[in-house]
Amino acid sequence: MGKKSAPVGQFGVHGVQSKRDWPCLTEAEIQAVAAQYPDLPPAPTVSWNSMRPFSAAARIDGAGCSERENGAGDFLIKRHHASLRGVAALQEEHAFMRHLHQHGVPVCLPCVTRSGATALALGEWTYEVFPLAAGQDVYRDVMSWQPYKNAGHATAAGRALALLHKASASYPAPGRGERSAAGLRAGRPLTSSLNAIGQPDFLDALQNWVALQPGLMPQLAHRSWLADCAAVLVPLHDRLKPHLATLPTLWGHGDWHGSNLFWQQGQGAHNPAEPQGSVSCVLDFGMADRTSAMFDLAVALERSMVDWLDPAENRRVFYPHMAAFLNGYAQAKPLAPQDCAQLGAFLPLVHVEFALSEVAYFGTLLQDAASAEVAYTEYLLGHARWFATGQGRAVLTWLGTAAQEPQAVGPKQA
């Protein structure tokens, strides 16, 4: 496996942290996984460990999948805890990826085991293996909630998301997870979903949805969570409710930001002052689910256009990038006035179900009460409350016009 590397931290709730939620993959488990794939070497070498949360991933030097050009190259092994992503959950994601691939979206398809599967269960872990994606990993060390490196990247990312939505429109699979007796989908943990948000009776649906989430109720028992949601979220949901009856649904990516994209090689790849050509590969469908195009577009804006890691009084909104992103999207999939209205209504709410899932993830699975508190107070409620501030209201007002005229750029403070 080669010499041991320095300790690897991870991206945490407040930035880079030294403590990892999930340990890096070990030499023994990498060899055990590699043995299940026909073209992977028996003694691969780790060249890099991912700092991203919720799973562990390592880039491996060695032979790639047999379908790769010349049958050789690097690949990525990704390990999930089975309570978060079992084989069935990964198969949902892989099926969506295959559909996109068949419709011209540049995705990196998973490698296949000796038994013909795309996901592997070993003990309490679930693994997936990918050949290294085409292009450059320009955002490897950039967290979510950080901006694109330049407006050219934002334009390219917006156009790529629109092309994904056009391809996804013909994908017929239902939303993730089983339906409850009341007809509400539980979904999967840590996905971008609108199972409760998409219901007209929001508080009732939210109570039912919360009860279906493993480990969530114990984390909310000491909180006045229903009153908090009524005070903070219901006024925002009232703006969304008129759009729900005619909302067209499709599978979205659920986590669209620069580090989940590989970029076409070119002069501007590492120079923030120069625009970069195009997205060469779309990665990481772990948060994908059946939502809607405008919900998924709102997720993309929430991920990269507001610097949530800054204190509220110093928070930056990246209006030029937001305008470029929307312009790129509209180049491939024009935005109608109804789309723009839906986008503004979704933006303050797209994080809600993911944030609540994080509360259960941190509090119950990881036993990390401090991070669960951040997920509840700063993420679930804090993001929504920000849209009631002057700065947040300005974003929603700007979207109402700029989404239809995306060349417009926001206030000077941005």
TrEMBL record:
GO terms for biological process: threonine biosynthetic process. Residues 69-317 form the Aminoglycoside phosphotransferase domain. Keywords: Transferase. One of its GO terms (molecular function) is homoserine kinase activity. Pfam families: APH. It comes from the Bacteria. InterPro entries: Aminoglycoside_PTrfase (IPR002575), Kinase-like_dom_sf (IPR011009), Pseudomonas-type_ThrB (IPR050249). Belongs to the pseudomonas-type ThrB family. This is Aminoglycoside phospho transferase. The lineage of its organism: Bacteria, Pseudomonadati, Pseudomonadota, Alphaproteobacteria, Acetobacterales.
